[in-house]
C-alpha cells in the first residue's frame, strides 16, 4: 500500500477532515476528496475483484469510466450498489463496501477462477452445462447467477425523494471544461439562454488539474473567475453534478442531477436526484476525451492507472500514486505527467515511450526508454514490477505504480445516440462524431482539438458562432494566453503489444482479455457486434468507455482489416447508469398514478363505503354494516334492498359528453350502430358504438336535451377513449358536420336511484311531476330541485331492471343532494349500494359490461344484432361488421348459465365444456364472462359467451375451472334471470 | 420528434401529451367496396421515410393533427390540424 | 492467419465434417448438373472457392443414428475420451430381438458400465438408422452407417430415389424410432416402427462416392454427419474420431472446453461459414434473425431441404432476436395461438441438446400480476385455456404472491396486487445464443448464411418469384420466405404486397449487474413493465411500445420514464438500482396482434411476420412451422390460424381485443 | 323537500400553502363557461370578454382553437348561466363547467421552477407572457394554465383530479418552502 497524500497541492480542504469507512476499516479524507482519492490517500489501492476471475483490482480512472472501483454505498433503503468511487464525493461517515468477493477483498475464494481461466474462455458457457438438461435450473444456473453480478441491491423501500424537471434553452453545453466554459461565456455574453451541465462536483474539467496558466492565472483561478461571471448572467445556468445521459429526438437531452448524493443525510424537502429533460435549440458537446488503456499483461494489477487519472489525483487531490512510479506512454502527454510527478517529489523510475522516434524535450531525472513497451505488469494485490521490452532486450523494473496512456478518444456518445454513425479517423486512431447530427455540435477535445489553448479558442468560437446563428449579437471573448501547456499530438495506436505473457485486459470489469477477442474472431464472431455479445466486451457498467476502442483495434488486427472496416458498436443511452428512482421521479407508490375522486366520494365515505380502484377512480364497492362478517352478506343485502325497496348508487364516473351543434343528431347516427336521427327531445336511448372493424367499442345511453344538444354517457373505463374517438370522427372524418363536443364528466354528480320505491323518493326532491305517465321509461329531462334551488338532469333509465332514475346535479352539490335523498328515503328503506351489488343486479338482467364487450364481440353475439341499422347509409363499423367470420353461426354468443345444483358455484373466467367431452382446448365451447351469487335466483348465476349459445338453452354443460379444480355441472339458459318481460321497468 | 411534437395550436409539446392513432389515411366513402375497406382498416404502407400519422393532442388542445414524420430519423417535417389536412388533401 | 483463410474460402474446405479432405477433381458445369439430378432433393452443395484445388461438389447430409445393443453402448463409452458421453444413453434392442425400448440415464463417469467399458474395447460401433420425424414425408434419415472400420454405409432416399453406398463390414440394421423426443402439440410422436426401406444398390454410382463424417451426440441420439464429396480425394487413413481436438471443434461440451483449454484455445473453429451466395437455392429466407435462422435449420433438419440460403442485410441476430427481453412463455388465451406457443415452448425445452449450444433456456417461471377483479377474471380465463391445452398454469392469490415475491409493493401501492397467473415453465433464454445456435445448426446442415447482403428487389415473373436482387447480386430461388420482422413491410413491398402491419419501436433495458435479486419473470398488471434478471446479473426489463411508426431502433425518454415508474411501483427496492442501457427494436405490429405464417398472393412467396413484440418466444415454433409451410406447402397444425386472409374474412386473432390499431396490441 | 337547503362542497376547500418564495391557494369556485365556436369561425375573444366576461382581466382564456373559457370568481345562478349561454347564440355553443373545473393559483418567485417540474411547456415569461394560457400536462394530469402575473399562474383542472394535482404541486413546492 504505497499511495499516499501529499502535504500540499490540490483543491482539497486539508482543514476539514471527513471520517469514512471502507469494508469496515476507518479512514479519513478531506473535504473536496472523491471516495477514490480518499482511498488512495489512505494507501488503499486494492479496491475490488473482477467479475469472472476475481482478480484484485485497483482504481484505474478518476472519472465516469471507472470499471473497477465500484462499491456498495449506504445502508438499508439507501443501499446503493455499484457506485463508482471516482464519481462519489466523500462525505462524513460515508460507508463503502467492496463487492463481488467472498469472504473478503484480500482473500477471495472466487479468485480460484483465475486458475481455471483456460477453460473459462469467451462464450464457454454456450458450449457446456447442457447435460443433463434438468440440472441447468437446479445447479449450473444458480451457481452462475451467484458468481455473476456485482453489488447486492436492497429490497427495502427508498426513503428519499426524486423528481423530474423540464428546462428550455438556446444552447445546452455539456461539459464545463475549458471548451465548455469558453463557449458558455461567449454565448452567455451574447444573451443566449445557456445551460451548462457538468457531471463532476465542480466545474472546470481538466482545468482542475491543469498546471498551465491562462492569461497569467492559474487554471483553477480561471475556472473560478469564469464561473463567477457566468453566475452573474441571468440567462446562464451552470449545473454541476449533472450528467447528460442521453440525447433524444427533438434535441431533448436527459440530464441526471445528483442533488444530495454528496451529503451524509439528505433533507426530505429536496430530491436526492433529479432528472432534467432539457429541450435546446443547439447542444454543444464539450465532453473532452477518454484516455485509452494499453493492453499488456497484468494491466489490471492494482497500481496500474490511467495517466490522466494519475495526474488528476496528483494535482487535484494531492495524492501520490506510489513510491516508485513508471509511465508507459504512446504520446507526449506522458511527459507532462512526468513533470508533475517529479515536481511533487514522486520518485519516477522510468518513462517507457512506445515511439522509437520520440523527440520530446524531457528534462527530468527519470530514465526514458524509447521504442519500448511494457509487456507485463507483475504483482498480486499490488504492482511489484514491470517487464519492459525494448528492441531485443527486456528488463524488469521494480515499481509500485504505473501510469499508462494509449492516446485519447473524443467522447462522442451523445452525438451518436440518435442514430448517427461515428467516423473513423486514421489520424487520431479514434472515432469522431458523425458529420451532421441536427442540433448538435462539438467543441474542444471532443471535437478533436489539441491543447488547452486550442480548446479554449475553439470553445469560444463555437459559443459565439452558435449565438450568432440563433440571432444573438455575438460578444467577443478572448480567453487569454496559455502558457505551460503541452498539446499531445495524436498517439499512434498500439493495439497489440508483442511479447505479452500474462492476461492483457481489454474490458476490465467484464474480464475480457486479448485472447477472448481473438478467440471470438476464430470462432466466427468477428463482427464487432458479435464479438461484443460473445465476449461481453463493452457490456460492463462503463459501457465500453475504456474497452471499445482497444477491442476494435484488436478485432481489426485479428481480422486483418482496418479499424474503420470493423466499425464500432452502437452508442446508446445511457452515457452513465441512471437510477430507477430518478427516472421515476415523484410518481411513486401511492402517487404512481393520479387519483380521481367522485364528487360523491365523501358521501360514500361517510356511509361506510369500501373503495376499489376503477381506472384512476375510486369507486364504492359495497357498504358494510356492523353485523356483516363478509362482503357477500353486504352485497346480498344491497341487492335485495334494491329489488325490494330502493338503493342509491354513485355513477358519477360514467363518462359524460355533451354534443352540441345542428348536426349533432346526424353525427350520433354515424357514430352509433343503431339509429339516433329521430330520437325525440326528452328521450334517452341505449346506443351501441362499434369500432371500424365491426366489433363493439362501447355502449351507453344518450339523451336528447333539445334539438341540437345531446347528453351521452359512456362506460367508466372507456370514457376517455370515446371522447378521443368522437373528436376524431368530428374533426377528421366528418369536419363538414356542425358538431361540438364537451366532456362534462366532472361537471355532474350522478346517482342512480333504483328500486320499486325510487319514484316516491325522487319525487320528494324533484319539483316537476314524474309519474309514469308524465315521465315514462327512457324519459330524460332537465328538472328543478328543492323548490328551485338547483337544476339537475333526470333520466329514467335502469341498469338494475327495477324502476329507476339517474339524477345528475352540479358536482359541488352532489353530496348535499345525495344526503337529501338518503334522508328522503330513510322511511322507505333506502340504502347505498356499490359496484358489487350493481354488478349482481345487471347480471341478473343479462345486461352487458366490458366483461362481455371485450373487443372481440359484435352486436349479434350479444343478441343485439337487430340493433345494427340495415338502412343507415354509413356508420362506423358498418362495412366490416358483416364479414364472414363475424356473422358465422359458430361464434360465441351470450347466454346465461346456472349451476345444476344451486349450492354449487363457479367463477368468471371458467370455460364451458360440453357435458362428457374430453377436457381439451378443441372441445372448448366458450367461457363465463361474469358471475355472481344472485339472492333472487338463490344460486350463482353467470353470463357466458358460448358457441351457438342461444340455440343451446337448457343444455347441461360443465363449467370448467382447472385453476381452482372446480368443475361445475351447469345449464345454459336465457340471460334474463329476473323479470324476463321487463315489466318492472315500466311501472 | 416524439420527445417534442409541434402542435400547430400549442407549440412544442412533450410526446406524452399526445395519443397516436396511426396512418393518416382517408376513410372510404359509404359506397366503397370491400377491398377499399380492407385497405383502410387493415393494410398499411408502413414506409421507411416520410409518413403521415394521426396524433391527438389529448392533454392539450384536444385537436387531431396530421403529423408528417420520417420513420427512419423521427424528424417531423410538418404538423397541421386535421381539418386543414383534410382540406388540403394531406390526409386524403 | 488461419482464420481469415477459412473465412474467405481459401485453403482446405472448412466444413467441419469434411475434415481436411483435399479434393482433386476440378469442377465443371456439365457433370454438376447431372449429379444434381442424380442426387435428387438433397441438391448439390456447391462449394465455390477461389482456389481451384478446393472446388468441389459436395453433398452434405446429416444423419441421426442410434446406438443399438449393449456392446455398442459399451463401445461408445469406451471412447468417451472423444465422445462426450455424460448423459442419457438409450438402449435399443436389435431388430428381431426384443421389442422393448428403454432409456437409461446415468452420467458416464459414475456408471459401472462406463468403467467397465473403459477397460474392454469392444468391436465396431454400429450405427443404426432412424426415421427422424414421424410427420415427415421426406425419408431423409433412413440411413445406415457403420464405423467400426473406417467407412460408413448408408441409404439415401431422396425424393423416392435410393442409392446405397458400399457396405464394408457390417450389415445394416433397421431399428425403431425411439419415442423419447417429445415435440409436443398435435405432433406428438409415438413409438413407431420405421418401415424397412427398399434399397436400390447402385454399385456403379456408389463407388464413385467417397465420404467422410463425424459423430455428434444430441441427447439419446447419435448423429453421424456425412459429407459426400464427389470424386476422389484423400480419406484420412485413420478413424477421424481419434482426433480428439477435431471432434471437440465440432461438438461443444465440457470436455471439448477442457481439451481446448489445455491447448490454449487455439483449435476452435468458426461456428458457421461465411459462404458466397450460390446462383440458385431451393429456398431463400430473407432475414437472418431468430425466425429466419430457425426456419433454415428446421428446413434442413426436419424437412430435408438443405439447399437453402439465409440472407441477412447486417450481421445475423442484428434484429429483434438480439434486442429483446429474452422471455419465453406459452400463456396464451386463444385457441389459434395457444397450441402454437406451447409447441414453441416444447421446442425450447429440448433446444439446447438439439442444437448442442447452451442458449441458457431457463424455466424459472413467468408471473403475470393482476390488480383488479376484471384482470383476475381475464387471467382465470386465460389460465384455464392453458390448462385445457395441457399447458401449466396456476392462479396465485395475493398471499401466495407475497410469499413468493415478498419484495413487491404490497403495502403502499396505488393499485394493490391481488394475485397472479403463474406459468412455471416460462422463463428466459440467452437471446443471442438462439440466433447463434440455430445458425450453427443450419450451417452444419449445409445452409448458406449470407451476412451483409441486403435484399434490394424481388424479381417476379408471371405471378411467381424468380429470385432476389441483393447487394451481392441476383440469386435465384424456387421458393422465397420472408422473415424480416420489423422490415417485413419494406421487403414485401418489393414484391408489390401491402401488409396489415406497422413497424413500431419497442425499447428494452438492462440494469447494472446485481447479485441475484429477482428469480423469475414478473409482469406488472397496473402499468407497462416486465422484468427478469439475466445470468450475468443485470435486470432485463421493458414496457410498452413508444407508439409511433419507426424504423429507428431507438426510442424516447418519455417511454423510459414511463417504464421506470411502473417498475418502481411494482418493486420499491429497485429505486437505487441503476439502469445501464436502453435500446430499441422494430416490432412488426400486426393489426390484430397475432402473426402471419402463410402463403401470399404470389405463388412461391411465403410470409412470416406480424410478431408484434412476442416474436422471441415464438422463434422455434415459428421456424418449424414456416419450414413446414415452405417444404410442404401447407400450414403446420399449430399455425393454421395465422392466415393472411383472416383480416378480410373476419377470423381475427385478437388476444387483447383492441381491434385494428397496430399500436394498441 | 323544498325546506332542505342544498350546500355546495368545494373541491379544494380553502386550502393554501404559503411561503416566501412560493404560494399555492385555491380560488373561489365561481363560474367556468366553456365556449365552443364554429370551426373556422371568428375569434370570439373580444366579444366574450365584453359580453359575458364583463370585461374582467383574464376572464376569457383560449381553451383550444375556437374554444374559450370564460371564468369568474362569482358563482352564477341557473338563470344567470342561461342568460350567458343565450348570449352566445348563434356564435357559439356554451357549456357550463363551473363545477367540472377547479381553479387554484400558484405564485411566487419560484413559480416557474415549480411548474417546470410538471410541464414540458416552456413557462419562461418570454415564451409564456402574462395573459397567455394553454392546456398542458402537469405530471400526469392535464390542466389549463394561465399566466396571470409575472410570478403567478392560475391552474384549472378537472374536478376529479383537483386534489391529486394540488398534492402534486404541494410536493413540487416543498423545496421552496
UniProtKB/TrEMBL annotation, chain A:
<dbReference type="InterPro" id="IPR006277">
    <property type="entry name" value="Sarcosine_oxidase_asu"/>
</dbReference>
<keyword id="KW-0560">Oxidoreductase</keyword>
<feature type="domain" description="SoxA A3">
    <location>
        <begin position="501"/>
        <end position="584"/>
    </location>
</feature>
<dbReference type="Pfam" id="PF17806">
    <property type="entry name" value="SO_alpha_A3"/>
</dbReference>
<dbReference type="InterPro" id="IPR027266">
    <property type="entry name" value="TrmE/GcvT-like"/>
</dbReference>
<feature type="domain" description="GCVT N-terminal">
    <location>
        <begin position="600"/>
        <end position="872"/>
    </location>
</feature>
<dbReference type="InterPro" id="IPR036188">
    <property type="entry name" value="FAD/NAD-bd_sf"/>
</dbReference>
<dbReference type="InterPro" id="IPR006222">
    <property type="entry name" value="GCVT_N"/>
</dbReference>
<comment type="similarity">
    <text>Belongs to the GcvT family.</text>
</comment>
<protein>
    <submittedName>
        <fullName>Sarcosine oxidase subunit alpha</fullName>
    </submittedName>
</protein>
<dbReference type="GO" id="GO:0046653">
    <property type="term" value="P:tetrahydrofolate metabolic process"/>
</dbReference>
<dbReference type="GO" id="GO:0008115">
    <property type="term" value="F:sarcosine oxidase activity"/>
</dbReference>
<dbReference type="InterPro" id="IPR041117">
    <property type="entry name" value="SoxA_A3"/>
</dbReference>
<dbReference type="Pfam" id="PF13510">
    <property type="entry name" value="Fer2_4"/>
</dbReference>
<dbReference type="Pfam" id="PF01571">
    <property type="entry name" value="GCV_T"/>
</dbReference>
From TrEMBL, chain B:
<dbReference type="GO" id="GO:0046653">
    <property type="term" value="P:tetrahydrofolate metabolic process"/>
</dbReference>
<protein>
    <submittedName>
        <fullName>Sarcosine oxidase subunit delta</fullName>
    </submittedName>
</protein>
<dbReference type="GO" id="GO:0008115">
    <property type="term" value="F:sarcosine oxidase activity"/>
</dbReference>
<dbReference type="InterPro" id="IPR006279">
    <property type="entry name" value="SoxD"/>
</dbReference>
<dbReference type="InterPro" id="IPR038561">
    <property type="entry name" value="SoxD_sf"/>
</dbReference>
<dbReference type="Pfam" id="PF04267">
    <property type="entry name" value="SoxD"/>
</dbReference>
TrEMBL record, chain D:
<dbReference type="InterPro" id="IPR027266">
    <property type="entry name" value="TrmE/GcvT-like"/>
</dbReference>
<protein>
    <submittedName>
        <fullName>Sarcosine oxidase subunit gamma</fullName>
    </submittedName>
</protein>
<dbReference type="InterPro" id="IPR006222">
    <property type="entry name" value="GCVT_N"/>
</dbReference>
<dbReference type="Pfam" id="PF01571">
    <property type="entry name" value="GCV_T"/>
</dbReference>
<feature type="domain" description="GCVT N-terminal">
    <location>
        <begin position="67"/>
        <end position="176"/>
    </location>
</feature>
